[in-house]
Every structure is written in structure tokens, then in C-alpha cells.
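Encode chain A's predicted structure.
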Amino acid sequence: MNPNPVSMTPLYNPYLKRLFDVVLSLTLLVLLFPLFMTVSFILSLTGRNPYFMQRRPGRYGRPFVIMKFRTMNNRCDARGYLLPDAERLTPLGRFLRSTSLDEMPQLLNVLRGEMSIVGPRPLLEEYLELYNDNQKRRHDLRPGITGWAQVNGRNELDWNQRFAYDLWYVDRCSFLLDCRIMLMTLPKVGQAEGIHSETSMTMEKYSGTL
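Encoded structure for chain A:
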């Protein structure tokens, strides 16, 4: 963790954080629109929906549909089960993940009020019933595109570390901290650092056994 946490800003209430999210997400969508449409078009050439959409728990655990660029196919084994992520990840998908471009559609989630630019990452709905009371506090804020856990290891973190970083952020959320996290995110964009764990192309499933 950080031995010198950024102090909370009294004026940084949920309304100002939301205003900051709207202004920044709208600005980025305008600036990145040509790239957004180019990636969408290339992915559509496969004949499939270029967007991956999945229900995730948002603030207070309320479900929403997260959007990402599709990075994997639906190849199955002889029994009809999906192959491991590493075998379903497409070459283009690998590039999108390594550059974090697959996260770009989540700017629409931010604009719609379902996510924030900075916050704990939205995990799978099936994990909700596995959280203890302390871990559930990660849902006190809107989930984010980037966050304190993402700039401190991302998928290389184990679950104990991930939850600790998420709760550290929830307890210290401030405008200065959000700015700091975004500045720390910039050099990581375009790098493959932390995009997978030691045993998975993404991250191991949470079993609730912590």
C-alpha cells in the first residue's frame, strides 16, 4: 500500500465526481471517435458483434451491462465447453488487450452513469454472494475503468491484494487521488504489463475462500 495516502477532498462529493466523469468521458469519446469506429469496423469484419457485453454489479451491487471490444471467439471443445481463454484469444484481441483498447467502449458506461473513470473494477455477478461484509464495501462507489488496483499490479495481484487496494481507494477517494491514478494509468496504456496472472490470460476466478 501507500504509506502516505492522499487526503480526502471535502468538496469532492459524488456530484462533482460525476461531473468530472461526464466531462472527461465525453471529451475522450470525441477525441477517440475515429479510433473507436476503426476498431469497431475491423472487428465487425468477422461477422460477429464487435462488442462484448456482460452483466456486472455496479454501485450498491446493482447490475448493469458492461461494454468491451470483443477479444475472444466462442470456440468449444468436443463436449461443448468453452476452450480456455488463451486458446480463444484472437490475434487482434491480444493486441487490443495489450494496449487496453478493449476497454474503450466503457466510456459509454461512464457517460450513462453506470461506471466512473476511476474506481474498483467491476467483477463478475457470481462473486456477489461470496463477498464478506468488508469486501462488499467495494460497491460503495461506482466501478471504474481504471483504479488503484489496476495501477498497482492489475491481474498480477492475488485476490487479497486486489480487495485491499480496492478498499484502500474507497476509504480515501478524492479528486487528487483520482488525478494521481489517471496519471499513473497513462504510461501503462499500450503496455502488456499486468494484463494476465501467472496461470491465466486474464485472472483466476474468485472462490470466496479468503
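Residues 14-188 form one domain.
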